[in-house]
Design brief:
Blueprint lengths: L4 H12 L4 E4 L6 H16 L4 E5 L17 E2 L4 H10 L2 E5 L10 H7 L4 E5 L11 E4 L6 H11 L8 H14 L10 H12 L4 H9 L4 H13 L1 E4 L4 E6 L1 H6 L22 E9 L3 E8 L5 H8 L3 E2 L3 E6 L3 H17 L2
Parallel strand pairs: 1-2, 1-4, 2-3, 4-5, 5-6, 8-9
Antiparallel strand pairs: 7-8, 9-10, 10-12, 11-12
Helix pairs in contact: 2-6, 5-6, 6-7, 6-8
């Protein structure tokens, strides 16, 4: 994959004409979202640009070790400062999402501003109105991989220091399940090698990302695997449910359920997994899907849960009760599979 030269020239001009740049990820941030915004934050700082990171809501604790995390403005906790920073910026770089509604409450403010926007993202079917300049590539593993490719094409590698490399590496690793899915392109491994060559301590990074769990998270995981895991006979499918009461009981913090959806895939014969997490009691359920082979969980999520994503990794939502969301899944997924 080659980055379009015309796009690169436009990118350079937009950056050079900006006195203040705001880096913005989606709500419910993950490793790729935070890795990409902080990777660009470090890179732009090293280039001498004024950049800030504004996120819609709390950042998971296992991502706060990256350089620049202490400078993040959390919009839901500090709305006045967040709005002021958004209004002061003369360039927005939108990272790891392709629909403005993924910004939550921040979307309303962003839509009122005429600030130029650049999108860097790897999700399919982007809203092309979201930005004037779009780097939208579904064939890359992650927004962090795409970010590295853009920096490389700009010949900014000398400013991509160990801290930016740590961030980009984290995004690639988390969005591929430690290179277990969405990672069949040799280019991904070349980029991982380039990032490791910057001197990062990958053992430390993996410990921070995957082995810094709270006791409460581990107890929540044990509880849901023991009590809330269901297997749908003859469908190679399993799902986990987590109620708001259970989240409260185990003192849930943002990021605590990250990766839970992958556990059912460790069961022999299971090729599809779903996780239903009740975020607002009887009102809102967040849903994650994973699959193997060519089972398009993104298409299913689009059709039945107002979602989308990648072939083997997608998300959706349900406005209603947890039981209703699960029932809809049980009623619709068997027929969806039968049509494949």
């Amino acid at each position: 994959m080659e980055i379009n030269k015309g796009q690169l020239d436009t990118f350079r001009k937009m950056i050079e004409n900006a006195s203040s740049i705001a880096l913005i990820p989606h709500k419910n941030t993950d490793g790729d979202a935070i890795g990409s915004v902080l990777g660009w934050w470090n890179l732009l700082k090293n280039k001498g640009y004024d950049a800030s990171v504004i996120v819609p809501d709390e950042v998971p604790a296992n991502l706060l070790w990256m350089k620049g995390a202490g400078e993040i403005i959390v919009y839901e906790n500090n709305q006045l400062t967040g709005e002021r920073k958004l209004r002061e910026a003369d360039l927005f770089i939108l990272l790891d999402f392709n629909d403005m509604e993924r910004c939550g409450d921040m979307a309303g403010v962003i839509k009122t501003l005429k600030t130029p926007r650049i999108l860097i993202d790897h999700h399919p079917d982007p809203d092309t109105r979201i930005a004037g300049l779009l780097f939208s590539e579904t064939e890359v593993s992650s927004t962090c991989e795409l970010s590295f490719l853009i920096a490389e094409a700009l010949q900014w590698e000398d400013k991509l220091d160990i801290y930016a490399a740590e961030c980009f590496y984290s995004g690639v690793i988390t969005d591929t399940g430690s290179l277990s899915y969405n990672s069949s392109d040799p280019r991904t491994y070349r980029i991982v090698g380039e990032l490791v060559a910057k001197g990062i301590d990958k053992d430390k990074i993996h410990k921070e990302l995957f082995q810094s769990n709270s006791l409460e998270r581990m107890r929540l995981l044990g509880h849901v695997l023991a009590n809330n895991l269901e297997v749908m006979d003859n469908l190679a499918t399993a799902y986990i449910t987590i109620s708001k009461d259970e989240l409260d009981k185990y003192q849930y913090r943002p990021g605590d359920t990250e990766g839970f959806v992958n556990y059912p895939l460790a069961i022999k014969g299971v090729d599809i997994s779903a996780l239903f997490t009740e975020k607002e009691k009887d009102k809102f359920v967040k849903i994650s899907f994973r699959s193997r082979s060519n089972i398009p969980v993104n298409k299913y999520s689009e059709a039945f849960f107002s979602g989308g994503g990648h072939l083997n990794a997608a998300g959706g939502e349900w406005k209603g009760t947890l039981d209703e969301a699960v029932q809809r899944f049980r009623n619709t997924f068997p027929e969806f599979l039968s049509r494949l």
